[in-house]
Design brief:
291 residues; mainly alpha; 16 helices
């Protein structure tokens, strides 16, 4: 890992920029020289100004400083986000639990600790099919965040993962607050991905609890949002869910929507999601017939 000063100098010289070209009344050449030599600790305002002049974001600066690799915490969070399915990714969940435990031996990190509780909850649910046991592992997270007037990005991320583990009435309360509060982050990095994943997960929970009419009332919002943002996998997912809901509710166009979803998934070369859609159709329609 490079020092802050080394990283600033590395970026500046690679862009063929002089110290003088970066400096102004806000920052003197002498101060920048001392910062680059790590003779002084730069203030946040000076670092922000330097990065603006270099046209480099703070996240990119950290990435370069870490020799073009994600820092350990960011790598753990990245791998967490790569989870695609609670059941399919059981080995991934086991691996992440081990990595998170090792990280927490040396670091007191609340965000990573909360994500570890969630991973353990998934593990328990996979092993026992008992949501109550999973809820017991994460309910302290909700208890600590529920009374707060503001939730920040890490809070929104963890709550968007754990809400469906709670009883339906409580899950609805959590997700409705999440959908409201995530709107503050509309222009923030990755907020679109969080919003559509949250909306589709909410629809899935409603379907699992046989609240099909409420799920159907939200599905067009998910379809139009994903299409507008060109999020094709989520778009196909939402269209497939609309088709399934139409079949459950005995509306006219269920098969048409399901066929359309499969065409999109085939076009973007996602055969696994076609299999998942077919399995979901079988499970929901079978349970409806049994009922």
């Amino acid at each position: 890992m490079y020092t802050t000063g080394e990283t600033i100098k590395k970026i500046r010289t690679s862009k063929n920029l002089t110290r003088e070209s970066l400096c102004s009344n806000m920052l003197s050449v002498a101060t920048l020289k001392r910062i680059e030599k790590d003779a002084i600790n730069t203030s946040f305002s000076n670092l922000e100004y330097i990065l603006q002049q270099l046209n480099v974001s703070f996240d990119e600066f950290i990435f370069i400083r870490n020799n073009y690799q994600l820092p350990q915490k960011k790598q753990l969070i990245f791998e967490f986000r790569e989870l695609t399915s609670v059941s399919v990714d059981r080995d991934h969940i086991e691996s992440l639990i081990s990595k998170y435990k090792i990280y927490l031996q040396d670091c007191d990190d609340k965000e990573i600790s909360n994500r570890l509780y969630f991973l353990k909850a998934l593990q328990v649910i996979n092993q026992t099919n008992d949501l109550k046991q999973g809820t017991a592992l994460v309910e302290h997270i909700w208890s600590s965040l529920e009374p707060l007037d503001n939730w920040y990005w890490a809070d929104l991320q963890i709550l968007s993962n754990i809400f469906y583990i709670f009883p339906m009435q409580e899950a609805e309360s959590i997700v409705e607050l999440l959908l409201e509060r995530v709107s503050k982050y509309e222009s923030f990095n990755n907020s679109e991905r969080l919003y559509i994943a949250l909306l589709l997960n909410y629809i899935q929970v409603l379907m699992l609890n046989k609240n099909y009419h409420k799920a159907y009332s939200l599905i067009d919002k998910a379809i139009s949002f994903a299409k507008k943002k060109k999020m094709y996998l989520h778009w196909a997912n939402a269209i497939g869910k609309k088709g399934l809901l139409e079949k459950i509710l005995q509306y006219a166009n269920g098969d048409l929507y399901i066929t359309e979803a499969k065409k999109i998934l085939k076009a973007i070369q996602e055969p696994k999601y076609i299999e998942d859609l077919e399995e979901e159709i079988h499970i929901f329609l079978s349970s409806k017939t049994d009922a």
